[in-house]
Hints:
Elements (H helix, E strand, L loop, with lengths): L2 H15 L12 H8 L3 H13 L3 E4 L3 E4 L2 H6 L4
Helix pairs in contact: 1-3, 2-3
Amino acid sequence: MGRSSQNIxxxxxxxxxxxxxxxxxxxxxxxxxxxxxxxxxxxxxxxLKKLAKEGFIVSESxxxxxxxxxSDLFLDGxx
Length: 79
């Protein structure tokens, strides 16, 4: 994972763990996140894929990514 995608990953993960992004809340569109972080959409997508793989967010077809239930993360031993 490149430096930019790692920065996005860490930033969003912190937002989730701090509950500034709440369980069930949809993240902004990849395009919007890319503009916010001033990176290409592929870079943003890499960060989101890593968060999804680790269970912090869930990808929903045609809806985007939403924050996973944080209690599930504790039960799975991810946090």
